[in-house]
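Following the same procedure, sequence and fold were stored together, as reproduced here:

>
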Amino acid sequence: DETEFRNFIVWLEDQKIRHYKIEDRGNLRNIHSDDWPKSFEKYMKDVNCPFKMQERQETVDWLLGLAVRLEYGDNADKYKDSTPDGAKNTDNTAKNAEPLINLDVNNPDFKAGVMALANLLQVQRHDDYLVMLKERLTQDAIAKANQSREGLPVALEKHILGFDTGDAVLNEAAQILRLLHIEELRELQTKINEAIVAVQAIIADPKTDHRLGKVGR
């Protein structure tokens, strides 16, 4: 929303960044002005933001980073010895290390994620989403996955998933499933190519005739 975006920029400048003096923030605060984009563009230049106005997501991220750095600089003594809440509790640390332990399979978001993965990976749809998961976890599938294969390690961060489940662990699992699916497609394509080559070899044989089965010299 354009109004919320402009209010957000004004709030950052007023409360955290404070690059302008109070009396110089009038143009930026006038969010309903037709000239606001020009004021915002000037503001980005003044704070040395490396992104363009059209790059909203990058600009917001950069300004937030600037605000955090300034907030920390103003309160370094307060924040330098801070410990993340998760690190204070060993139980929380253990849970964070094994996020799938507390996975709720009845959660609507989890169901929606399974359905989305099924569509992307072209797994046959089923009324029971757990059945779809089992189709990918049959004994044959597990045995095939456990077969040792030599190959180069894959850097998951270099492969774009194309969607976001909202959970880093599920995103990584989806990347792995997609790569495995691509590998299966390549194996199928290889078999198809081998079959085509075999058929072509038979057709190209001068001793073979499609009418009599054997003609020629």
The mean pLDDT is 75. The chain is about 60% helix and 0% strand.
